[in-house]
């Protein structure tokens, strides 16, 4: 009776042999945990969506996020030899610090890289043959380093692009007079204090046109796509457009199906709006529009709650950062400042004790 010929074992790479050596424990103590083998040097990274992952789970993350996650995992897979004796979280921390030093990253970029690496290791089945999530927050070194960089960001003086003023928006709109769609994109960013990705993601079903007044067009939007919707879900905002821009919105809605973008393609309208801003002031960016709208509302005395309702902010700290903290006080901050002026004098002199020193 014939006997089965044992399969020939493929030679292993030197690094793999080195990791199995007791003298070189490798990442995370020879790469073992109660729930499985997690040494990143042994992972297989998929070049595209693996068959084991559902389409819904794959599409939950944007293509940009998936790309950044894969890059972070590839960095861990290629961990250099001098970090193999560390656990996975410590090695990931040092990899980020090395890249930051070499590429001269700012603190905000380092924090972003920490968040990306943590997110990648919470979704390893999307990119690798590792079946379980790995929480780097279990590591004191990781959480301490991450928290320290957050502290540095909080203490830094921000240096964002300058915010726009209304006259600059009007000048940019005049440059786009021959391109109604790009002009509408610009004006909607200003009127709704919105990010470009939010306006670019609008569909006709997200827009509600109300009865126009003599000078303006009340418009309601439902933000279903964009940065804020990832963690808070869809939310409504309301503002006014000019009669001209409101009519342009109505025309755009009539030309699109319910599944099409209101701006087609959004990237082209975004590019043209940015170019118009640059013609007014080369230092301006699309981000300048949202910040400028927030400053404009604060100067006009709009309450903080109403500004946050329009911007979608859920934290007053974020709103204050948009206003450069004390540089642009809000309606609520002005009376608080006036009340603080009482510290310059004594409104109620201390009562004298006539019995002091007497019996």
UniProtKB/TrEMBL annotation:
GO terms for biological process: DNA integration; DNA recombination. Residues 1-35, 337-359 are annotated as: Disordered. Keywords: DNA recombination. Signal peptide: none annotated. SUPFAM superfamilies: DNA breaking-rejoining enzymes. Residues 7-23 have a biased composition (Basic and acidic residues). The keyword Ion transport does not apply. Residues 158-335 form the Tyr recombinase domain. Residues 350-359 have a biased composition (Polar residues). GO terms for molecular function: DNA binding. It comes from the Eukaryota. InterPro entries: DNA_brk_join_enz, Integrase-like_cat_sf, Integrase_catalytic. The keyword Metal-binding does not apply. This is TATE DNA transposon. The lineage of its organism: Eukaryota, Discoba, Euglenozoa, Kinetoplastea, Metakinetoplastina.
């Amino acid at each position: 009776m014939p006997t089965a010929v044992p399969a020939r074992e493929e030679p292993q790479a030197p690094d793999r042999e080195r990791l199995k050596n007791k003298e070189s424990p490798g990442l995370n103590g020879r790469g073992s945990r109660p729930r499985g083998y997690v040494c990143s040097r042994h992972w297989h990274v998929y070049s595209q969506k693996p068959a084991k992952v559902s389409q819904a789970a794959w599409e939950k993350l944007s293509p940009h996020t998936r790309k950044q996650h894969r890059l972070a995992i590839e960095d861990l897979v290629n961990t250099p030899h001098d970090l193999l004796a560390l656990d996975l979280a410590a090695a990931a921390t040092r990899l980020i610090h090395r890249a930051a030093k070499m590429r001269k990253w700012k603190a905000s970029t380092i924090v972003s890289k920490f968040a990306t690496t943590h997110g990648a290791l919470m979704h390893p089945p999307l990119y690798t043959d590792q079946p379980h999530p790995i929480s780097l927050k279990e590591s004191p070194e990781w959480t301490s380093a991450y928290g320290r960089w957050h502290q540095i960001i909080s203490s830094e003086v921000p240096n964002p692009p300058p915010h726009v003023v209304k006259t600059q928006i009007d000048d940019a709109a005049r440059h786009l007079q021959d391109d109604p769609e790009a002009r509408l994109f610009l004006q909607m960013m200003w009127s709704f204090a919105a990010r470009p990705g939010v306006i670019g993601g609008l569909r006709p079903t997200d827009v509600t046109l109300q009865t126009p007044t003599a000078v303006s067009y009340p418009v309601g939007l439902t933000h279903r796509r964009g940065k804020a919707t990832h963690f808070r879900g869809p939310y409504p905002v309301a503002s006014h457009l000019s009669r001209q821009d409101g009519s342009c919105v109505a025309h755009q809605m009539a030309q699109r199906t319910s599944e099409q973008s209101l701006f087609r393609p959004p990237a082209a309208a975004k590019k043209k709006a940015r170019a118009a801003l640059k013609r007014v002031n080369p230092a301006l960016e699309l981000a300048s529009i949202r910040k400028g709208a927030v400053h404009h509302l604060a100067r006009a005395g709009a309450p903080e709650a109403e500004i946050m309702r329009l911007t979608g902010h859920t934290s007053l700290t974020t709103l204050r950062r948009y206003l450069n903290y004390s540089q642009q006080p809000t309606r609520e901050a002005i009376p608080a400042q006036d009340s603080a002026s009482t510290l310059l004098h004594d409104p109620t002199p201390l009562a004298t004790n006539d019995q002091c020193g007497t019996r």
